[in-house]
Amino acid sequence: MTSSLFDGKVLLAPMVRVCGLGFRQMCLDHGADIVFSEEVVAAKLCKAHAEVVPYPTVGEVTDYVVYEPFKTGYKRAVVFSTCASCPTIIQLGVSDPAVGAAAALVCCENVLGIDINMGCPKKFSVMNGFGAALMRDPVRAGHILRAIHLAVNRAELVHARKDKRTIPISFKTRLQRTASETVTMLGEILAAAGHTASTPVVHAITLHAREPDSRPDDAPLYTRAEEVVRLCRADERFQSICFVLNGSLESRADAMDKQKQFGFGAGMLARAALVDPRVFSVSPAEGPLFDVMRDLLLYALRYRNPFKNFKYHLTRAFPHHEELRPMMEKVQLQVKHYKDSITFFNITASEVEGLNWEDNEAVVVDTVPDGVPSAPVVLKRGRVEE
Questions:
Q1: % of the chain with per-residue pLDDT over 70
Q2: Rounded to whole angstroms, how far apart are CA atoms 7 and 256?
Q3: Which of 248, 283, 309, 365 is the one with CA 20 to 30 A from 189?
């Protein structure tokens, strides 16, 4: 197997409303090797344009924004953000090859790689034809991968890059009912993508060791995942692909142990990192978890995370740890915006000085900037529509 960007690494999993720029940077600072964005809807990203914005105490951040009609003006909505200190694998939610290619071209020069969501079973993803819906349509899944690869890795773009690099293309999926069914699905995806041993398209495959209808607390199916990788390794098409294990990995040490135990090339942390990003560290620092959540707030303020996403993160983290659980009711009742959060976590005035955290929420403007398209994709009744 050839060397992969992911080989031997411990990765942050894509988590909706959690993996914004601030949390990704926090995980990198605690030792994550590679971080994934939350799922970004390709149909919205392909309508976005890049704006380089100076964030106080951070530096230049590239915001990919759309201007949506709002009352008598337009709301500046950030679809995805990244910066030089936080190289990111962007995960796309996409159901159409052409839309996926267009979205990838918007951001490809500012990301570490592009991942396609082919396993999320949540209603929004499946209703829109991406996530786990692609497990039932491996040919379309493969066509999406091929379209993106051909768009971002065509010769003139690769030659124009300073490092002459190709953009790694990967996907994240789940297990079918049996190992053989899973291998068949993966093979059909590669075939439709035009991936061969001599002309590779797919860089890595993340296997969440659960089925689409499994509950998050169901035991991961590591043995089945191990069998999938073993069977795939017998096919030369998979020789260059790094397999990443996801599903209830608890720490860097646990991820490293299980990737070796079950024949994977890398490990991916999700819920454990959501609760405590220190799990990425080789030697995790000790101390109250409340202080970690306090740091999470400071990252959210510095990197302009929308408050609703920060609050969502708290409501997912606090119930999952005995130290934080008794404070959950206070979080629900007392933390209603960032001003409350600053009080709740005892943030000092000097810690937020100059952050302009009031700018974290969407800005409404009277007119759309020159040269920027308006009337982007909107979300109606849970569906992506034009």
A1: 95
A2: 11
A3: 248
